[in-house]
Write a structure and sequence with these properties.
Elements lengths: L8 E5 L3 H11 L5 E5 L2 H7 L5 E4 L1 H7 L10
Length: 73
């Protein structure tokens, strides 16, 4: 990674992910790839080196050490 996001990727980890997804899609310019997870297990399954993770701090804290590609929370 050269430090620049050529295709921004975001993981939303929150019990309210489905509510946040359409709001973010309105604000972010394509081709941003936004994935969502409601549980910690879903986050583990969905994570694919996204550099940005948004969501509930308590859930993110549970899995952040398992996500080495995350650069911004």
């Amino acid at each position: 990674m050269n430090g620049k996001l050529t295709k921004p990727e975001v993981l939303i980890l929150s019990t309210d992910s489905q509510e946040y997804l359409p709001l973010l899609q309105e604000l972010i310019v394509p081709p941003t790839d936004i994935q969502m997870a409601v549980t910690i297990d879903e986050a583990r399954d969905t994570y694919s080196d996204q550099p940005v993770i948004l969501g509930q701090p308590d859930l993110i804290a549970e899995v952040l050490n398992e996500m080495p590609g995350v650069r911004w929370v």
